[in-house]
Amino acid sequence: MSSPRKSGKRYVRASQVEMTQLVLPNDTNYLGNLLGGRLMEWMDIAAAISAQRHSNRVCVTAAVDNLVFHQPIRLGEVVTLKASVNRVFGSSMEVGVNVTSENQLTGLRKTANTAYLTFVAISEGGSPEKVSSIHPQSATERRRYREALTRRNLRLRNRPRSRR
Predict the structure, then answer these.
(1) Annotated domain spans of the chain
(2) How would DSSP label each residue in 54-112?
(3) What confidence tens digit (pLDDT) does each residue in 95-107 have?
(4) Which of 27, 63, 99, 124 has the most CB atoms around it within 10 Å of its CB?
(5) pTM for the full predicted model
(6) CATH 3.10.129.10 fits 10-158, yes or no
(7) Given pLDDT bands bounded at 50, 70 and 90, which one contains residue 1?
(8) What are phi and psi of 39, to 5 degrees?
């Protein structure tokens, strides 16, 4: 089977990342819930791997959107983070991350968190570098691809103007 990278076209499935973490005591707050900052760190790592896998470049986080904590994640639960590139915009990429938690004693699984992160591919010289487009195949991938443009337009419209 040929590699999706060598064929020229880049597919969503080639950018997919799945990470698993066990919530330990040093990951939790006083209530025994996973710290939001720790989860954000894990999400950033999963999304960065996805962006770098797609672009074959070092990628840096440019924005985090729609970071929603749906359910608390408890001490001892297993956290699964799934990330993939939704769409490419020149040198930037939107990466979607879905987080589920699992209580291994009861078998209960729940969606705990979702977010969209924007990454920029960086050249060896340190400047933004154009990235190959992504080719969605499934209906879900095509929907995420379309919706990514709407989110990008909102991001750009709401971006604070920098002072120079």
Answers:
(1) 10-158
(2) HHSSEEEEEEEEEEEE-S--BTT-EEEEEEEEEEEETTEEEEEEEEEEE-TTT--EEEE
(3) 999 999 999 999 9
(4) 99
(5) 0.90
(6) yes
(7) very low
(8) -65, -40
